[in-house]
Specification:
The complex is a heterodimer. Chain A is mainly alpha-helical. Chain A is built from 2 helices and 1 strand, in the order αβα. Chain B is globular and about 45 Å long. The chains are: A mainly alpha, B mainly alpha. Chains A and B meet through helix 1, strand 1 and helix 2 of A and helix 1, helix 2, helix 3, helix 4 and helix 5 of B.
Chain lengths: 56, 165
């Protein structure tokens, strides 16, 4: 039995276009922090990832 | 620029009914998936298809698909570097946002389409517009907001403002 539900493709069928207000504010804060961190540390992060990838 | 009329139609539908018709979100998502595969980012295209099916599967199949998704992220990293990995993780985060009930299905589908077409950087102005709208709704004691409006305004900033500067 591959599918758990009779009503498949729930994600595609979901027409709701509502977002939680609290989530929207939280998401904005997270995106700004992550973007800021990448702007400040982007070069170093890339270097570390490349070093790890080369070691593997 | 073609995305703006599409997002406007989505925003109008959202403001009127708090829903967006399936064809208005799924056809562009399929188009973006096809475009990503055409550009050589096939792991990201398959990743989106696995995310669409993930919630409907039996838990054993879900576990297997989770492993496949991990491999797809590795392939995306190998093919497109950190940018590919970033797009893959963003797509998964958007799906998780839907699964946790934080965003609607239509919002998640539209944001996935934009992420595939424009890279995750597009989510910065969208998130800021959403945050501002969320703050206004919060102060008005409204627990939810029509997110398509924030997506439209964010995309307007992303596409138009750089041309004006």
């Amino acid at each position: 039995m591959l599918f758990a539900k009779k009503n498949v493709l729930r994600f595609i069928k979901d027409k709701r276009a509502l977002e939680s207000s609290e989530f929207a504010v939280m998401l904005a804060a997270i995106v700004v922090v992550v973007y800021g961190a990448f702007q400040l540390l982007g070069g170093n992060i890339s270097q570390v990832v490349t070093t790890v990838a080369n070691a593997i | 620029m073609l995305v703006l009329p599409w997002l406007l139609a989505c925003a109008i539908s959202d403001l009127r009914t708090r829903t967006v018709p399936t064809w208005l979100t799924v056809i562009p998502l399929l188009g973006a998936v096809t475009w990503a595969a055409w550009q050589g980012s096939w792991p990201l295209a398959i990743l989106v298809l696995t995310l669409v099916a993930l919630d409907d599967l039996h838990w054993r199949a879900r576990g297997f698909l989770g492993g496949v998704q991990g491999l797809l992220l590795l392939f995306a990293w190998q093919l497109d570097g950190l940018a590919g990995l970033g797009v893959g993780l963003t797509l998964m985060a958007l799906w998780l946002g839907w699964k946790l009930g934080a965003i609607g299905g239509a919002d998640a589908q539209v944001l996935m389409t934009l992420t595939l077409l424009f890279q995750p950087g597009v989510l910065l102005p969208v998130a800021l517009a959403g945050g501002l709208q969320g703050l206004v709704q919060w102060l008005r004691k409204k627990p939810t907001l029509p997110a398509m409006l924030a997506i439209l305004v964010g995309m307007l900033f992303y596409l138009v403002v750089p041309k004006l500067l």
